[in-house]
Amino acid sequence: MQAYLNAPIKEVISKFPKVADILNGYEIGCVPCSVGTCLLKDVVAIHNIGEENKAQLMYEVEKAIYPDREVKRPVINKAAKAKPEILRYSPPLRMLVNEHLLIKRLLNCVPAIVKALKEDTVIDKEPVIGAVDFIRMYADKFHHAKEEDILFKYFDEKADIIQAMLNDHVEGRSHVKEVLNGLKDNKIDAVSQHLSAYAELLTGHIKKEDEILYPWMDKNLTVKQVGELFDKFNAVDNGLQRGVEETYKGRIEDLEAKFIQK
Amino acid sequence: MSKECECPGAKMQDFGKEEVKGAEEGKRASQLRQWPVQLHLVSPEAPYFQKADVLLSADCVAYSAGDFHKDYMKGKTIAIACPKLDEGQETYIEKITSLIDDAKINTLTVMTMEVPCCGGLVSIAQKGLQAAKRKIPVKSIVIGIRGGNVLSEEWIS
Fold first, then answer.
1. Chain segment A138-182, per-residue pLDDT in tens
2. Which of A154, A178, A202, B122 has the most Cβ atoms closer than 10 angstroms to its Cβ?
3. Residue B53 to residue A223, Cβ atoms within 8 A
4. Residues in chain A closer than 8 A to B106 (CB atoms)
């Protein structure tokens, strides 16, 4: 079992497909992950499912890998599988979670923007240009910069979980570049495809950060580091053009008024 | 006063017959790096407060948490107070504000006991933070009377 605990999760799932179902049952979304190199033991450790659920999950995984082996079933307190733990973040990570809220509001507008691109007889590129500007200035420069230039440096950047997040950032930027190319070349299908792909990618990415990465980081940051991060994040916010939060909140409200609140 | 009305902070409890488990060998060094420690006596101008991680502890906490020095004091600058019995608590609030704005402390950790009267120390810290121009992360840790275990630990700012 030790060998499988230290094996990449994608390798374990391909040998024992039932492990994927077990992980899905605990809402651990490793199956669609493009990297899949996180070790099984790290996958279990990093997710916020509580100690008793972890013991039960490991029991089920071991039975899936060794169906004929006698494995001791853990004693479960029924209340352990009740309400999931309410996530509370340290102040700097709460800043990032709050920024996710505005990004999610943009992502919520994307299906309607794409629908309009496909159905309207006169193509209005302005909403797409506005969405791209928000993505580049707010999601990337304002938010992801805090993660890549500051937060991730407090951890081993080669760690699989950090690499998975960085890969998502790179893939997201690639989609945005293709959206701009599509706008320039009047290839509306390409614009729709890459905007939709970006929305899907970021939705999963934000869920992973809010529910897995940030709580794990909070458990591993010292009080001193939390203070340093808070100070550095505030310095970034204060260093940018004054009112960037309000400016882009206004842009999202305009998009929502046009596409959501009809 | 009837027993039902007794303040939990002052209610007599005897743990004497309970077996105490824990390693007793060896000697731990003190983690105290300053003097004084009482909140009325400390000065925000003191060098050990500048950009420090500060631990604001209720008086009784250190007697309950067995590893107080090792687990909580280490690496921090400390101030102690009693939110129930100390006078001049407005001065406490001003001092917290000065620690945040003038000493530019990095973080504030407030440690209290589980009894209701201790919650006043968290309130003092929050009022000091509200009055400050700078904002910093503030954490609250609540310690149990029996065994000194951590009952809650959360960021409150």
1. 998 889 889 999 999 999 999 888 999 999 999 999 999 999 999
2. A202
3. yes
4. 224, 227-228, 231
Interface probe, candidates A231, A237, A238, chain B, greatest B C-beta count within 10 A: A231
pLDDT of residue A43: 77
The domain A2-81 is placed in CATH, from the list 1.10.3910, 3.30.950, 1.10.287, 3.40.1350, at: 1.10.3910
Cβ–Cβ contact A90 with B under 8 A: yes
What is the mean predicted confidence (pLDDT) over B18-47?
87
What residues of B are in contact with residue A92 (Cβ under 8 Å)?
Answer: 137
Assigned domain for B9 exists = no
DSSP states of chain B as a string? Answer: --GGG--TTT-----TTSPP-S---S-PPP----S--BTTT--TTSGGGTT-EEEEEETTHHHH-TTIIIIIITT-EEEEE-TTT-S-HHHHHHHHHHHHHTS--SEEEEEEESSGGGHHHHHHHHHHHHH-SS---EEEEEE-TTTT-EEEEEE--
Which sign does the torsion angle of CA A204, A45, A162, B72 carry? positive
For an interface test with A, the pick among B106, B133, B141 (most A C-beta atoms closer than 10 Å) comes out as B106
CB of A93 less than 8 A from some CB of B: no
Q: Of residues B91 and A50, which shows the higher confidence score?
A: B91
pLDDT in tens, A42-100: 777 777 677 778 888 888 888 888 888 888 887 766 554 444 556 789 999 999 999 99
B12 falls within a domain: no
- Report yes or no: A111 at the B interface, CB cutoff 8 Å: no
Q: What is the ipTM of this complex?
A: 0.89
- Which residue out of B55, B107, B108, B152 would a mutagenesis test of the A interface target, given it has the greatest number of A Cβ atoms within 10 Å? B107
Tell me the pTM: 0.83
pLDDT at B17: 62
State pLDDT tens for residues B62-75: 999 999 999 999 99
Domain count, chain B: 1
pLDDT over 50 at A211, yes or no: yes
A92 touches chain B (CB under 8 A): yes
Tell me, yes or no, if B137 comes closer than 8 A to chain A by beta carbon: yes
